[in-house]
Amino acid sequence: MTDPIVIAPNLKKRLSGVTATIARLVPLQARKIAIKATGPGLPANTPHIPLNRVALLARKPLRVWHARRNVEMLLGLGFKVVLRKNWKLLFTSASQRKHSGYTKWLISRMDAVIATSAKGAAYLDLPATVVHHGIDPAQFCPADKSDVRRRLGLPDGRLIGCFGRIRAQKGTDVFVDAVLANVAKHPDIIGIILGRATKDHTAFEQGLKDKISAAGLTDRIRFCGEVSVDAIPEWYQALDLFIAPQRWEGFGLTPLEAMACGVPVIATRVGAFEELIVDGETGRLIPRDDIAAMRIALDSALSDPAILPRWSAAARGHVVANFTLEKEADTLIGIYETLLRNAAKA
């Protein structure tokens, strides 16, 4: 087994955004640099080194420990200070809020810091390199809508999607209210909700279903449940418009996934959405938690037959030029190599 010079820890068993990020990136990065993940909960195809073996790695050569959580920063410090590992410590922050004193202290002990958005970098007390997340444009790509809809059992008309966990934080209710308000004026639209509500949010989901039922429009807004990760791209491919109505978001990949499939996006100004969507060119940005603004933006996009085709034509090119997974992986590798090179010179 070849020892890594970059280690990406994942110290959380439950699936999370960090886990998904590592699972996407490390196999791609491993083609160009000796990197391995460590910790539980990762897919079998992720290059991996057991955590107990990490502790036994020789103090030299120089290595990079790329943490994405507090516990991983702390463990990296332990390896460096207690076990005197010859490591450079790197942290990626996806947070868009003020950090606790403890987190600030941990971050101050890092050799370099990355933020996944410019908005997130503004909450840090020291300089950070902004590295946006990316997606695989070969996986998320346009397809013949008629064929996809036939396979999925979806109707014709203009399909408007909202994907992700069903909960207030994700703004699913904003989506429902905006579609309900536009059905009479635009009788060809159908809302598609993809995802599930966890136990704490089932009452919220049921309230939305009751509202739709009371309006007599259960055939116009459909709850399609949760699908496997590999099936998600074709659900985007079936859409004419995607809505990301979140009230809060750390980063938010769904607009990129939609746009890569040639689907324009109306999104709230949260997470990294303002940095991903070109307002008026690949979609529209509106204030968070503003149902009236969402209703108006949806109406405007549907009323002019030239808008959605124009946005759609620009959407994929924008993602391919700026937000690919390969670009994210290569940018991170450049940061690893700079850390190692500067440490060697020192």
Low-pLDDT residue intervals, each spanning 5 or more residues:
none
- What share of residues is helical? 40-55%
Biggest sheet: strands side by side, in what order?
Answer: 2-1-3-4-5-6
- Quick check: average pLDDT? 95
Q: What can you tell me about this protein's structure?
A:
The protein contains 14 helices and twelve strands. The model has no long low-confidence stretch (mean pLDDT 95). With 346 residues, it is of the alpha/beta class. Strand 3, helix 3 (70-81) and strand 4 form a beta-alpha-beta unit. It has two domains: 6-134 and 324-345, Glycogen Phosphorylase B (Rossmann fold, 3-Layer(aba) Sandwich); 145-322, Rossmann fold, CATH 3.40.50. Helix 1 packs across helix 14. It has helices spanning 17-29, 51-55, 70-81, 101-108, 118-121, 145-152, 172-182, 202-214, 232-237, 254-260, 273-276, 291-303, 307-322, 325-345; strands spanning 6-9, 35-38, 63-67, 87-93, 112-115, 129-130, 158-163, 189-194, 221-223, 241-244, 265-268, 283-286. A six-stranded parallel sheet has the order 2-1-3-4-5-6, sandwiched between helices. Strands 9-8-7-10-11-12 form a six-stranded parallel sheet, sandwiched between helices.
